[in-house]
Amino acid sequence: MHNIVYILLRRIHLPLIVLVCVYAIAILGFVLIPGMDDKGNPWNMGFFHAFYFVSYMGTTIGFGEIPYPFTDAQRLWATVNIYATVMAWLYGIGSALSLLQDSAFQAVLRENAFRRAVKRIHEPFYIVCGYGDTGTTLVHALCEEGYRSVVIDIDPGRIIALELEDLPLPVPGLYASAAEPETLVKAGLMRPNCAGVIALTNVDDVNLNIAISTSLLRPQLQTIARAESHAVEANMLSFGSNQVLNPFHTFAGRLALALHAPGMYLLLEWMTAVPHEKLREPLFPPHGRWILCGYGRFGKAVHERLLAEGIEVTVVEAAPEATHSPEGTISGSGTEAETLLAAGIKNAAGIVAGTDNDANNLSIIMTARELNSRLFLVARQNQHQNDIIFNAARLDLVMQRGKIIANKIFALTTTPLLADFLLAAGKNSNEWANQLVSRIGGISGEEVPQTWVMSMTPADSPALYSGIARGKTVLIADLYRNPRNRDERLPFIALLLKRADTEILLPDDDTILQRGDRILMCGRFGTEQQAEWVAKNHNVFDYLHSGEERAGGSVWRWLRSRKEARQKV
Amino acid sequence: MNLEKVIFTFFIVLALTLNFGFFLGDIDNPEHHSVYELFAAIVVSLIATILKFGDRTHLGSVLLATSLVADMQLIAAAIVWAVAEHVTHTGLTPHIMAVIVSLSGGALLANITSVVLLVVETIAVRR
C-alpha cells in the first residue's frame, strides 16, 4: 500500500510545485497592483483577499470582483492568471490521470491487489506456478473441491484468462516470474496457511528454482514439481522435494498398466480423476506387436515400459540417428502409408502416435486406421485446444500430458491417503482390481467417484468421536447408514482404514472403529455431505447407531436423564 | 554535482532564511515584520514540502515531518493575521503581532531541525 502512495507523491512533484508557484505569483501580483475602493480612494488588496480571489478564479472564474470592482490593471493581471491557473490545474490533473494509466503504476496496483487477495485467504491454499494446460485443469479441480489456490504465471495473457474464468472460488493471479523467490513470497509462501507449492511451468529450470526456493524458505512444505528430464528430476529429489512428476514416465507407466492390468488401470484412472469427469469404459488393449511413432522423450519412456512388459515394439522415427533409436527402426515420420507398411502395420496389434506435433499424431492415426481397422489406437495430445478433434478421432486412448499430471497432483494434494491406497492396491492382482472396479462402478453412477477421508478426531467427527469415547461400539457399517432412513445404505465404500501404523485395505463392514482412525472413502459425487451427518451431528449419530430418535435440547436431555435415574431406582 | 540536490537544498535553506528574516525584530512591533516575507516563507516552505514527498528513507520521512510542522505553523500565523485584519478588525495590536511572530518562531525551529538533518546527512555521505 505504501508503495502506491510513494509513487504517486514522487510522480506529482512537478505539477504540485508548478501549481504552488502559479498561485504565489498570482497572489503576489494582486497584492502589489494598486486598486481603488468604492469611494475612489487608492486601496491595496491584502493577502487574505488576494488568496480568496485567486482560489476561486483558478477553479470557477465567476464570483465577480471583490471586495471592490477591479481597476484595469487588476483586470489585466486577472486575465493573465485565469489562463495560468487553469493551465496549472490541467497540468496537475492530467499528470495524475496519466499516472493512473501508466503501465508501471498499474503493475504496482495489480500487485497490491494480489497481495491483499492472498492476505484475505484464511484457509489452507496451494501456490500453483504455471497456468498452462496442467495448471488450468488442476486449479479448476481444486476449486471444485473447495481448495483455495494462488496462481503465478509469466504470461500476462494467461493471468487475464484466469480472471475471465468463472471459477467457484476467487483465485488470485500474479503475472511474474516464479523463478524469483520474491514472487513466491508475494504469493504467500511464508504464510502459515500455505499448504504447498506446485511447480508446473514448462521450463524445467524454473521448476527447479521454485523447488529450491521452497525447500530453503519453508523446509516442511509440500512441494510437487514437474520435471521433463532425468537430471532435473534427480536434482529435485536430492534436496527433498516431496513429489517430482515426469509427464512422459507417468503416461508410459499408465500405458503399460493398461496393457497388462486393465482393471488396475481403470481403478487408478477413477481414483485420480477430477470431479465430474465421465466414467470411462474399461480398456482391453490387445497383446501383440506394437508400432511406436516418434522416439523423443515420450517415445523413449513408452518404449522402455513396453519392452519391460515383454511386448514387441517397432519404432518409426523421422531422425533415427539424432534420437539414438534402437536397431530396426523404420526411418520416416509415420504420417505416410509407406512407412507404416514398412513397419508392418498389417499385422500389428496397436499403434502409439507419440510425436510432439498434434497434427502429425492425428495424421498417423488416420493413416494407420485406413491400413488396419482393428488397430488399438493411442495418441499423444500436446495441446488441450485440440480436444475437439481428438474426440472426433475416436481414439482408444489419448494421452493429454497436462491432464495426467493435473489429475495426479490433484489426487495427491486433496486426499493424501489416496497415495497410500494406490500403493497398497498395486500389490494386488488384476482380478482383485476388476472386482473392486465393478463394486465402485455399481455405486458411482455416470460420473467418476469422489474420494474423501473421514478422521475419527474431535475436530473432524465430533459426534462419532464422542460416541466411541462413551464406549459405544461403532462399526464401519454404521457409517454407511442413510441419515434419513437407517436401513438404507448410502452409495459409498471404505477403501482403506489407517490406524496408527497399520493399514487395512477394504475394511469389512463389521470392523470396529477406534479413536484416531482415518478412513478413505469412495462413493458417488455428493455422498460425502450425507456421510458427514453421522460424524458431526450427535442426534443423527444416536439415531443411526441405536435406531432411537431422541429430542436434542438440553432441557429434554436433562428431563430424560432424570427419568432414567428414576427408573433405575 | 547533483542538480536535484542543489534544488532540494536550496529550497530547504531558503525556507529557513525567509522564516528567520520574518522572525527577526521586536516580537510585538508590526513595523519589524513584513507580510511579504511571511507570504514568501509560506510559498517556499510549501515547495520544500512537495520536494520532500516520496522519499522512502527514514531520514526522508523525518525531513517531511519537520516541513509539515513548519507549514502548519506558518499557515496558522497567516490565518491569525487574516482574521485580525479582516474578520475581527482588531488590527495588528502588539498582542496579535506577538502571536503571529511566535508561531513563525515555532516554524523556525522546525526549519532549523530540517537544515541540521540535511547537514548531518551531507557530512555522513563523505563524497
Shape of chain A: flat
Major β-sheet annotation of chain B: none
Mass-distribution shape of chain B: elongated
Strand order of the largest sheet of chain A: 5-4-3-6-7-8
Strand content of chain A is 15-25%
Please report the distance between the alpha carbons of the first and last residues of chain B: 10 Å
Please tell me the total number of domains of chain A: 4
Overall SS class of chain A: alpha/beta
Number of helices of chain A: 24
Question: Radius of gyration of chain A in whole Å, from Cα?
Answer: 36 Å
Instruction: Give the overall pLDDT of chain A as a whole number.
Output: 83
Provide the succession of SSEs of chain B. Answer: HHHH
Given as residue ranges, the uncertain stretches of chain A (5+ residues, pLDDT < 50) are none
* CATH fold node name of the largest domain in chain A: Rossmann fold
* Structural class determined from secondary elements of chain B: mainly alpha
Based on the model shown, name its key terms.
heterodimer; A: 569 residues; alpha/beta; Helix Hairpins; Rossmann fold; 4 domains; 6-stranded parallel β-sheet; 16% strand; flat; B: 127 residues; mainly alpha; 4 helices; 0% strand; elongated
Write structural notes for this entry:
The complex is a heterodimer of chains A (569) and B (127). With 569 residues, chain A is α/β, with parallel strands linked by helices. Helices cover 51% and strands 16% of the residues of chain A. Chain A folds into four domains: 2-101, Helix Hairpins, CATH 1.10.287; 119-245, 3-Layer(aba) Sandwich (Rossmann fold); 248-414, Rossmann fold (3-Layer(aba) Sandwich); 417-555, 2-Layer Sandwich (Alpha-Beta Plaits), CATH 3.30.70. In chain A, α12 packs across α19 (430-444). The model of chain A has no long low-confidence stretch (mean pLDDT 83). Chain B has 127 residues and is an all-alpha fold. Chain B has one domain. The radius of gyration of chain B is 16 Å and the shape is elongated. The interface between A and B is medium-sized, with 20 and 16 residues.
